[in-house]
Amino acid sequence: MLIAQLRINSHELRCETGCWKRPKEAWEESVCVFCTSGKVETEKHFILECEAFKDSRDNYINILTVSSWNNLFSKGTMEKLGELIIKLIRKRAELQKSVCEAVCPIGYCYSRGH
Ligand SMILES: [Zn+2]
């Protein structure tokens, strides 16, 4: 289900939520706050690129070295990919809590589940 959510963009990565800012951020401003790449936090950045989640990817390198983003969602890798995404999302929630506490003194964002 997580994979399906990612595929239809109904997840909570910043490229979708524009979290922490009102009014909603422009897409290109939804920069990943977990690393210093300055890249928009897309699904691809989150799963494959973001340095902040490097350690979480260690056991999944073999499924991540695919030739294209679309191949990543092929049937053979679904189970492993699902595991990885759960791991990444947990890690992200932890990191997000600390980022939120740092940028949002009243903890508004985190308490709203962003
Ligand atoms: Zn990042």
Structural descriptors:
0% strand; binds zinc ion; 114 residues; mainly alpha
What does this structure look like?
The protein is an all-alpha fold. 45% of the residues lie in helices and 0% in strands. The protein has one domain. It has helices at residues 2-7, 14-17, 43-49, 61-64, 78-103, 108-111. It is globular. Zinc ion (ZN) binds at residues 32, 34-35, 37, 45, 50, 52.
Low-confidence stretches: none
Q: How helix-rich are the residues, as a percent range? A: 40-55%
Count of discrete domains? 1
Oligomer: single chain
Beta fraction? under 5%
Radius of gyration: 14 Å
Bound ligands, named by name, code or SMILES: zinc ion
The global form is globular
What is the terminal separation in angstroms? 19 Å
Major beta sheet, specifics?
none
Give the overall average pLDDT. 75
How many β strands by DSSP? 0
Tell me the series of helices and strands, N- to C-terminal: HHHHHH
Output the number of helix runs: 6
The helix-and-strand class reads mainly alpha
